[in-house]
Structures
1.
Amino acid sequence: AQVCLIRVMVVFALILARQLTMQMMQNPQILAALQERLDGLVGSPSGYMESLPKVVKRRVNALKNLQVKCAHIEAKFYEEVHELERKYAALYQPLFDKRSEIVRAAYEPTDEECEWKPDEEEELTEEMKEKAKVEEEKKDEEKEDPKGIPEFWLTVFKNVDLLSEMLQEHDEPILKHLQDIKVKFSDAGQPMSFTLEFHFEPNDFFTNTVLTKTYKMRSEPDESDPFSFDGPEIMGCTGCTIEWNKGKNITLKTIKKKQKHKGRGTVRTVTKTVPNDSFFNFFSPPEAADFEIGHFIRERIVPRAVLYFTGEAIEDDDDDYDEEGEEADDEVSRLLFVCFYQRYSPACL
Ligand SMILES: *[C@@H]1O[C@H](CO)[C@@H](O)[C@H](O)[C@H]1NC(C)=O
Ligand SMILES: *[C@@H]1O[C@H](CO)[C@@H](O)[C@H](O)[C@H]1NC(C)=O
């Protein structure tokens, strides 16, 4: 928790520094003065080191070697954190399995399991209760006997900005068939990684029942730059091949293009297939870009899906955003938000 707190403080410091920088950038005088000072400073830290007596320099090297050893011990610490996560993942899993059964109507929860005392704040007046009841009855009449919790994961996706940004209209009919998202950790002794598994019910779009995305992590100091080590980092990711049914590949679109013959000047129309925007491009990743998304799904969405479904988790998250969100501010708040909830993996900085 202390490490986490320090990271949050670092992020705050970075935000402050950034805001300050932006203010200063707008003031040419400050900028010029700053440049002057910077020019004066160039080389001075190393100059100081060089000015030290040889025997002292030698000892500083010893301290650096100790620092490298610290980094290796820290790596061991994070390996154990990973082990602990694996251990606890196994404890959560039966509950997530039950959640999935309820969502996809494989299990009907008992009355006792469905009892839920609302918050006092949520307590409704008699009149509102009556109104809600009438409306609910009306809805029940319209949709006869819905199975499980319809569109559970699709609703989660729509409720979370980070995910809804990737969502296209033509993805929605497919995501209605999404029944579960699972996180699988690499086995002990294997290179550190985690896999997001998207479980689908049989559907018209593709024949896969599970789509996967694996994030490889590294929790070792880099030989060439050991001091930059700050916990496990996501190093890369691999998606999977989606076996689209004929004509259902929504990650492709065909466009008609007019081509003019250079010599004769005649015009012909050709059809070309080009990539189309889709959430499902997530599984054929253009690398790097979606580490944040993978981490977010693992750390937030999967453990607390119901609260994203109801929107409760989103209200909490909104507290982390600035009210008057300029675009730059938004970006920083999101970074802060992501870092804040990362138990480890400070790669986001
Ligand atoms: C390509 O994307 C557009 C807009 O996002 C969508 O309307 C269209 O249906 C997609 N094409 C295919 C073939 O799915
Ligand atoms: C679907 O489209 C992607 C490009 O977005 C392509 O790489 C893939 O091979 C296509 N799959 C099928 C089964 O047509």
Note: The longest helix spans residues 54-103.
2.
Amino acid sequence: MSHYDKHVFFCVNQRPAGEDCCNNHDAQAARDYVKDKVKQLGISTEKHQVRINSAGCLGRCELGPVLVVYPDAVWYTYVDRSDLDEIIEEHIRNGRVVERLKI
Ligand code: FES
């Protein structure tokens, strides 16, 4: 059994200038946004523990920016804050996969 109900990893990998990577799409800011919002909304509780982590390259750079939600092992890409809000509300809070953002 997973220690966390939802454990989210954001690739925030930064490659040298000119090479494609998730942080070229502001992945670190996206991760910080989700971490702050989960805290602000009180989604992580003693009974529903959520953790939002930064990760290095997750090996799916061509589909980036990417994040993965465990224990479900569901991968997402995202464009803007409204995509992240939908992942927070639907998947992280309510356990429903956001099909339109799934990769
Ligand atoms: S740089 Fe993000 S998956 Fe490789």
Note: The pocket of FE2/S2 (inorganic) cluster is lined by residues 11, 13, 21-22, 57-61, 64, 66 (CB under 6 Å).
